[in-house]
Amino acid sequence: MTLLGRYMKQNRVMLNLNGHSSNVHVGLGKVSLKEELLRENVGAFVNSLLLAKPAGLKKTSKFAGYVNAFHICSTLGPAYPVSIQSLSRALEQYNKAHLA
């Protein structure tokens, strides 16, 4: 189980929603995490995010109109953009490993 998944079961995940601009801030890991665990946590988060997608948003892409941009950063560090294609790959890998 992913670190994020364990925290979610323990109700230790804090989502900070910015009501004015619809930003979601969530902790996905620590610097000490291996890259594969960080990818798994990102996949779990994106999966949860898409499960919460309102039914009224019907577009051709699963992210269209719902996720416009995704950035990852350390605490007080610079934000780096993550492409929607990378998010889609992380989601597919997560779904293959955990939901199949």
Characterization of the model:
- InterPro entries: Ribosomal_uL1-like (IPR023674).
- This protein is an alpha+beta fold and 100 residues long.
- It has one domain (3-98).
- The chain is built from 3 helices and 4 strands.
- It has helices at residues 3-9, 35-51, 84-98, and strands at residues 16-18, 23-25, 70-72, 80-82.
- The strands form 2 sheets. It has a two-stranded antiparallel sheet.
- A hairpin with a 4-residue loop joins strand 1 (16-18) and strand 2.
- Helix 2 crosses helix 3.
- The longest helix is centred in the middle third of the chain and has 17 residues, at 35-51.
- The relative contact order is 0.14.
- The model has no long low-confidence stretch (mean pLDDT 76).
| Biggest sheet statistics | 2 strands, antiparallel
Q: What's the number of extended β-strand segments? A: 4
Helix and strand pattern: HEEHEEH
How many discrete structural domains?
1
Oligomer: single chain
From the spread of the alpha carbons, the general shape counts as globular
**C-alpha termini separation:** 14 Å
Radius of gyration computed on alpha carbons: 14 Å
Total of helices: 3
Averaged pLDDT: 76
Question: In percent terms, what proportion of residues is strand?
Answer: 5-15%
Q: Widest sheet: strand order?
A: 1-2
Stretches with pLDDT under 50, minimum 5 residues: none
Task: State the secondary-structure class.
Answer: alpha+beta
Helix content: 25-40%
